[in-house]
Design a protein that fits this description.
338 residues; alpha+beta; 14-stranded antiparallel beta sheet; two-stranded antiparallel sheet
């Protein structure tokens, strides 16, 4: 390639934020390019989605929820450190996270290129000068399209407090990690995945039950050493489980409401249990996914699938009806860090 073409290609590459600001070890996995106040007590985080990626669905396709959730996840430490005076080394603990895709996000389209996350703080608790807990509303916009709206609540803990919360399990060296060769996955074809390593479900002899497949060498889920299964892995497990449930036709996941109750440890099996989907008056199928370890629920998600093709939507019939309510639980303890 001529040198002028090389310089032109480099000039077109976006400048991403430092990997430490989004809690990533590999700079190639950073998706955010900056942030700024919006002049109305909120913020705008800018991002750039890759043309090709080893894990996210790219090219002409519907928006990959895994790409969406990782982009939003990266915005949380970026704003905590940049806008809310949270020191590096503090831990961000996920309490709840929900998202809903718009019809524009489900349409096949090239998703690569710049986008913005418009962030509004709905609630803020401070400890001294720094943020201790935040509830944020995030609208994801690309060009003229609103792609998704997300809501999340997280808390912030100092390293010493985190160590007490973990009760001696606060570093990767304190646990016996699962083997580098995890249990066999279900068929990637069933999930429209190209590689076995991106499947996080392992068969358990049941159409509504699986074992969580933890691969501590996975470049996205375990970008750096962790002492527990990261929150984004649990979100992806719930999505994959919902896609695997019996249904007349495969439908994409378009919304999730999740709650984190306890850490999913690396040295014990975690079981994924799903309710059979129920069809609501609005044409959407919904299911509740639960992740349990040692007989105790650690994570729960209410998952909504895209509307059945040809279903006639009757707003008056569905108004005020909730087919499967999201489980109500207490506080969370799963770090945002992936």
């Amino acid at each position: 390639m001529p040198s002028t073409a090389i310089h032109a290609a480099l000039a077109q590459r976006p400048a991403f934020v430092a990997r430490q600001l989004v809690h990533k070890a590999n700079p190639a996995e950073v998706l955010l390019t900056g942030w700024r106040p919006d002049g109305n007590d909120g913020f705008v985080a800018s991002a750039h989605w890759p043309k090709v990626h080893g894990c996210y669905a790219t090219g002409r396709t519907a928006l990959d929820p895994l790409l969406l959730t990782e982009t939003v996840r990266q915005s949380l430490p970026l704003l905590c450190h940049g806008a809310y005076a949270v020191p590096m080394g503090h831990h961000l603990l996920w309490d709840t996270f929900s998202y809903e895709l718009t019809p524009e996000a489900l349409a096949p389209k090239d998703r690569s290129g710049p986008l913005e996350l418009h962030v509004t703080c709905l609630d803020l608790t401070r400890r001294g000068t720094r943020a201790a807990a935040l509830t944020l509303l995030v609208s994801v916009v690309q060009g003229a399209d609103l792609l998704a709206q997300c809501t999340t609540r997280l808390t912030v803990q100092a390293p010493a407090v985190y160590q007490r919360l973990r009760a001696g399990r606060g570093t990767p060296e304190d646990v016996t990690a699962l083997p580098a060769s995890p249990a066999a996955p279900i068929s990637p074809f069933a999930l429209r995945r190209a590689r076995h390593r991106d499947v996080v479900l392992s068969p358990a002899g049941n159409d509504t039950r699986w074992r969580l497949r933890v691969d501590t060498t996975h470049p996205l889920f375990f970008d750096h050493p962790l002492d527990h299964a990261p929150g984004i892995l649990l979100l992806e497990a719930a999505r994959q489980a919902a896609r695997m449930l019996p249904a007349p036709r495969p439908l994409p996941v378009m919304a999730m409401e999740t709650s984190f109750f306890r850490y999913v440890e690396l040295d014990a099996p975690c079981w994924i249990e799903a309710q059979l989907p129920q069809l609501g008056p609005d044409g959407h199928r919904r299911t509740v996914i639960s992740l349990r370890q040692n007989g105790v629920e650690h994570f729960s998600a209410t998952v909504k699938l895209a509307r059945e093709p040809g279903h006639r939507y009757l707003p008056s019939a569905q108004a005020g009806i909730e087919i499967i309510p999201s489980p109500v639980r207490g506080s969370v303890a799963v770090p945002v860090r992936a």
